[in-house]
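Listing S7. Sequence submitted for prediction.
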Amino acid sequence: MKIFKGKVVSTKLAKTATVEVERIVVHPIYRKRFKRVRKFPVHDEIGVTVGQIVEFVASRPYSSQKKWKITKVVDGKGKVPSAKTGLSDKKIKETVTKAVRKEKRKEAK
């Protein structure tokens, strides 16, 4: 049984997460490397969030397309958007630091 590792890109459906698996392929003649991406609908009993890295394996069919199950969360850095603004924590942090820098410049003058 093969274990896949990928990034959660969507959790909009109930008990389902869409996981994106990226792999690098080499062209047989030109030897150029390029990325191939495939999205898997995965059964989610853990409750993962968008941005987390998870491992999943093949399992019994949960629906016509969902035949995968999350086994564990590898990296727990989920991007949780702010409820009011819809911005991620990183964007909010950047805007706050910019505002603080502006205040310090005004005080220095």
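Caption to Listing S7: primary sequence and predicted structure tokens for the chain studied. The beta strands are 3-10, 16-26, 33-43, 53-58, 68-75. The first strand starts at residue 3 and ends at 10.
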